[in-house]
Amino acid sequence: MKLFSSVNDVVDVQSLVKEALHLKQNPYAYEHLGKHKTLGLIFLNPSLRTRISTQKAGTNLGMNVMVLNIDKEGWALELQDGAIMNGGTVEHIREAAGVLGQYVDIIGVRSFPGLKNRDADYSEDVFNKFVKYCGVPVVSLESATRHPLQSLADLVTIEELKTKARPKVVLTWAPHVKALPQAVPNSFAEWMCRADVDFTITHPEGYELCTDFTNGATITHNQDEALADADFIYVKNWSAYEPYGKVFGGYEDWMLTNDKLKPTNNAKVMHCLPVRRNLELSDEILDGQNSIVIHEAGNRVWAAQAVLKQMLETL
Ligand code: CP
Fold first, then answer.
1. pLDDT, tens digit, for every residue of 91-100?
2. 302 near 54, Cβ under 8 Å?
3. φ and ψ at 59, to 5 degrees?
4. Which of 86, 113, 136, 216 is most deeply packed, by most CB within 10 A?
5. Using a 6 Å cutoff on CB, does residue 47 contact ligand 1?
6. pLDDT tens digits for range 265-313
7. What is the largest CA-CA distance in the chain?
8. Which residue segment(s) compose the domain that 214 sits in?
9. Can you give the CATH number for the domain in which 97 is found?
């Protein structure tokens, strides 16, 4: 594997999930693969889970791992081709990415959307420029429109904890005070549409996701109806795709509570984290027996390790 930016970069999704679960049982079995190899993790935005889990995954594979919070510690990046750089930007992404590719064997990049210009965000300009100019394999650490390492960890978690061959998985919108990207729900939807699950998305009117990611899902505005018989509930806020990046206010009653779990199949509750307590998810859910959010975050290591292993095998 030379690029991990979406589920479309994976030849066999089920094998990758199995590989992650195998690595969970045998974390150090492939330490030789990463000997004298370096992983560079480049962040243009904050992170807790992605940074530490991917760092641990690389270390488990014997790699040296370097992290650069390029937005704070690097030179201000210019992205536009042909720019006359007489303003605030100091280094063009052509040089920055190219130089980083001289120092590392695999690069991870995190770059969030601006949520102002849909075409610009959905063109994945920043991520794609890193891919184009760095000259080494690239793994997405969350881009403007997708978070594939999170979605792989989510699928690994469902595969590990399911109690029936084809579980019902529900992605439900949750309230928030800020406009958040669509990357996590887009990505979760496209991975679930490729998995052997019965997949439903529920959200208030106006929060429709781009249909490129939801083809094959059942979509409803009725949360109660969606939650009936659910085995897994994935909770996430996102801003509107149309009008892009907007939030409409209200819908506080979409927050998941123990009452809402009653018609489910004792559903396990997932969230990518970070989560705003008692806004997106109630204390009673997060601290209760149905929450698997910590377990899910733990699986980020094995998802990242499975991807890095496949990349190392092609170096
Ligand atoms: N879920 C997730 O990607 O967490 P971080 O933003 O902390 O990396």
1. 999 999 999 9
2. no
3. -65, -40
4. 113
5. yes
6. 999 999 999 999 999 999 999 999 999 999 999 999 999 999 999 999 9
7. 61
8. 148-298
9. 3.40.50.1370
